[in-house]
Amino acid sequence: MVPAALRIVKLMANRRIHDEILYCDRCGISFVWSVEEQRAQEPESAGERPTPTGAGPTAAGDGKPGASPPLCPGCRLLLPARGRERGMVKWYSMRKRYGFLVRRDQAELFVAASALQGVRLLQSGDLVEFSLGANEQGPIAEAVRVVAAAADVNVPLPEEPAPRGRFNAAARSRRL
Predict the structure, then answer these.
(1) Which residue has the higher pLDDT, 115 or 65?
(2) Which of 72, 74, 80, 68 is nearest to 43 (CA)?
(3) Which pLDDT band, with edges at 50, 70 and 90, does 21 fall under?
(4) How far is the first Cα of the chain from the last one, in angstroms, to the nearest whole number?
(5) Mean pLDDT score, 90-96
(6) Cα within 13 Å of Cα(114), Cβ side
(7) Which residues are 127's β-sheet partners?
(8) Does residue 78 carry a pLDDT above 80?
(9) Could you tell me if 122 and 128 are in contact, meaning their C-beta atoms sit under 8 angstroms apart?
């Protein structure tokens, strides 16, 4: 006689995978979880239910497969990957080969050129994704990847006062 747990495992292995309509736990919209995505996320053991790519653990979740909520493709794109954070480059010195990143409501992070992936230098205003590390001085950014270049990010800059003096084109036209 075959134990019940073994029968369930065999049934799960023989089940036909099909596209599923799911609802995003973050934004609430419906999305299709395709067969291709499901096969890419096949769990190691047949008894676990796979979760969509990029679904991160919740406050109540423990990070195991099936414990984290499925997220729609838009939320997966906007949110950083598991174990990573996002921030903005405050400044980066190409000559010194280091700089600092700022995060929302948190302390600045040191970033060295050796931590950059896919780029040789950063520019002020670049949106970056990174993992946290530590050294003797404190927390540092590791495995830094540019998500959006400074030109692509809409950062409101402080308004500068209009230039004064004889080189101001508007003032010069009034004098003529």
Answers:
(1) 115
(2) 68
(3) confident
(4) 104
(5) 93
(6) 1
(7) 88, 148
(8) yes
(9) yes
* Least-confidence region, from 55-59, 103-107, 154-158: 55-59
pLDDT of amino acid 129: 94
DSSP conformation class of 154? -
- Please indicate, yes or no, whether the overall pTM of this predicted structure exceeds 0.85: no
Domain range list for the chain: 4-77, 85-148
Give the per-residue pLDDT at 175.
54
Q: CB of 100 within 8 A of CB of 109?
A: yes
- What is the phi/psi pair of residue 44, to 5°? -65, -45
Q: How far out from the chain centre does Cα 25 lie?
A: 17
Residue type, 175: R
Among the listed residues 154, 143, 129, 158, the one whose alpha carbon sits nearest the alpha carbon of residue 54:
129
Domain 85-148 fold is: OB fold (Dihydrolipoamide Acetyltransferase, E2P) (2.40.50)
Which among 84, 77, 79, 81 has a CA at the least distance from the CA of 101?
Answer: 84
Say how far apart CA 95 and CA 76 lie, in whole Å.
36
Chain-centre distance for alpha carbon 50: 21
